[in-house]
Amino acid sequence: MGIGMDVAAAVRLLGTERQNPLVARRYRSVLATQHALEGGAELRWSAQPGGADAIAAVLISAVPLRVTDADGAWVEAPVGTACFLHPYRSVTLTGEATGTMMCAWVPWGALAEIESGVRAPGEVIALSTLGRGLQAFLTSLLTQPSDPTVYTDYLVERLIAEMVFSVLVEAAPRVIVEGRKGSGIDRARSLMLVRRGERDFGVAALARDMHLSVRQLQRMFAAEGSSPADELRRVRVELARELMSDADYAPLGIAEIAEHAGFADAAGMRRAFALSGLPSPRAVRRAARA
User: Fold this and answer.
1) Sign of the alpha-carbon torsion through 267, 271, 276, 280
2) Which Gene3D superfamilies does the UniProt entry name for this protein (predicted)?
3) How high is the pLDDT of residue 167?
4) In a domain, 166, yes or no
């Protein structure tokens, strides 16, 4: 991520003559938009050619929609659902009343763990707690005045991308991750990636998300010679290292990096680095800047 998304190019993917959104907010490589939608109006989302520029979107409408795929099969998308616009699948959305809709636009590359051939989650997703969180966040971005900075743009970019990813993972519990057949441990690892920046997310919270007991979760990882605590620590260390090497995070101190990477404090991050066989976070940051 990081390369700015072209607002006009993204909105043209909706295939409508009314291409100018009511509101558009760009946060580096992601985009949030709000559009007017007339009853009976059609939005024709066309499959994109493969490549690094492919864009996916999640559309949340304040009015019911009819979603028709390329074969003519259709399904209703009532209020309280989201429409997932896959970059490689054509779909037509028809407004069943006049109202508004919001879109979160994300580079397909930011959703790399979701294999492009997976049919689930399909086009229509019921809004769970995660989906409603995305809806509330988009509403805030699109309706409240803001004074963006490079730093806040970076944070919003990451947050929107991870929220969209989490909504898709939750909607497709058997999603294929990194080319492997979907399984419980793949879903657990995907949830770790989504929530690793949350300091209150631990093994117990992961077990709840998986609808397992902690003991069942530990046995699942033990079967592959690992543990959920070790893997959660690893993905947090990876996130901390990414942030340390990112110029946009250069103004942050070690304690702030620890917070954004999901550690309780800087001391916890130092212990995690040591357990991973790495030098101290300060030494890793100096090496990244060299």
Assistant:
1) positive
2) Homeodomain-like (1.10.10.60)
3) 85
4) no
Radius of gyration of the CA atoms of the chain, in A: 20
* Below-70 pLDDT ranges, the chain: 1-4, 16-19, 52, 112-122, 148, 150-151, 172-183
pLDDT digits (tens, 9 = 90+) for 211-220: 889 999 999 9
Tell me how many degrees the CA angle 70-74-80 measures, rounded to the nearest 5.
Answer: 120
Place of tokens 């790399």: 112
CATH number at residue 193: 1.10.10.60
Indicate whether 11 and 139 sit together in one domain. Answer: yes
Task: Note the pTM of the prediction, 2 decimals.
Answer: 0.64
| Residue for token pair 């709000």 | 34
Q: Is residue 121 reached through a cis peptide bond, with omega within 30 degrees of 0 on the bond before it? A: yes
The pLDDT score that the predictor gives to residue 113 is 60
Residue 262: φ, ψ to 5°: 95, 5
Domain of residue 226 covers 184-289
Q: What is the DSSP annotation of the chain?
A: --SPPPHHHHHHTT--S--S-SEEEEETTEEEEEEEE-TT-EEEEPPPPSSTT-EEEEEEESS-EEEEETTS-EEEE-TTEEEEE-TT--EEEEESSSEEEEEEEEEGGGGTTS-TT--TT-SEEE--HHHHHHHHHHHHHHHS-----HHHHHHHHHHHHHHHHHHHHHH-TT--BTTBPP-HHHHHHHHHHHHTT-TT--HHHHHHHHT--HHHHHHHHHTTT--HHHHHHHHHHHHHHHHHT-GGGTTS-HHHHHHHTT-SSHHHHHHHHHHTT---HHHHHHHHH-
Beta strands at 65-69 and 42-45: parallel, antiparallel or unpaired: unpaired
**DSSP notation for 234-250:** HHHHHHHHHHHT-GGGT
β partners of residue 180: 177
Q: Is 179 exposed, middle or buried (0-12, 13-18, 19+ CB in 10 A)?
A: exposed
Q: Does a structural domain hold residue 137?
A: yes
Residue 212 shares a structural domain with residue 121? no
